[in-house]
Amino acid sequence: MSRFIVSFLVLALAVAITIAHPDSARKFRSCGHFLNLRIDRVCGGTCSMDYDAIHDIACRSKISDDQLAQICCSSLL
Fold first, then answer.
1. How much is the pTM?
2. pLDDT value at residue 17
3. Residue 18 host element (H or E)
């Protein structure tokens, strides 16, 4: 019975954390191929900023999807 309660509490905590911090607000460090995939997902494949500049920003520091959209997808906003 106590295993069930502990398992339920862990699951509830995981759900609460996921709801409180959606992926668009979480910050990720993206470089190379993973940055390209992220730009495809967030901006639809095109970036209005020079690739080297966005690579420096996204690879050296963590940025959220919302920040990436503001920097890179200005034509979509």
1. 0.60
2. 61
3. helix 2-20
Whole-angstrom Cα distance, residue 8 to residue 28? 29
CA distance 65 to 41: 9
pLDDT score at 43: 87
End-to-end CA distance of the chain: 51
Question: Could you tell me if residue 17 is inside a domain?
Answer: no
The Cα–Cα gap between 1 and 62 comes to 42
Structural domain for 61, as ranges: 23-74
Q: How far apart are CA 59 and CA 30, in angstroms?
A: 5
Hey, which residues does 28 pair with through a beta bridge? 63
Looking at the structure of the chain, the number of domains it has is: 1
In this prediction, residue 18 carries a pLDDT of: 57
